[in-house]
Amino acid sequence: MSEEKLTTNVLILELSTMIVAIALAFNSQSLNYYTISLPAIIDYIIVNVLVIWFWWRYISDRFKYPIKTNNFPLYDVLLLIIISLLPEILRTQDIFYLTGTLAALAFLWALMLRRIIREYANTIDQQSLVSLRHQINIRSSMGLLFLISFAASFISQIIGRLIFILIIFAIIYSVFIDRFSKSNKRSI
């Protein structure tokens, strides 16, 4: 990897760390605005875990597939901005903003993964290509479901919330089944 590309990748990773640090700082400031109570502390912990989890997933993708071109990493930057907005969006507890943000996050992540496939088209092995395409399909499907919930929240906040809850349960169920099937494959 050339020195210029290495510098670009280091800057992207530093930017992502800085954005997440700012988001976490804003989230910790929220404890000052409210009286400290058990629900406020639990909310603070959950928001931090979610932000760090999204950041970690982004970093993992970028360590595995660093940026190869000299083009501006638009999808990466937009993805990081949305991740940094999560504490504020989660604090509002408005289904309209939450589903819209999660839809944008899922679609941007899918676009970033498509860009990775394009950048690594000549060097990527078949198994990694299948895995990336699977991740693109999952993120696009999640984005579409969150977009449906977003549109439903225009009609009714209650309908939007119900669809959102169903989506979250479906995601948790899917993750549980995926982990369970992988652990069964290892034990066989």
Automatic annotation (TrEMBL):
Organism domain of life: Archaea
- Which UniProt keywords are given for this protein, alphabetically ordered? Membrane, Transmembrane, Transmembrane helix
What residues form the membrane-spanning segments? 7-27, 33-56, 72-90, 96-117, 138-156, 162-180
Protein name in the entry: Integral membrane protein
| Species this protein is from | Caldisphaera lagunensis (strain DSM 15908 / JCM 11604 / ANMR 0165 / IC-154)
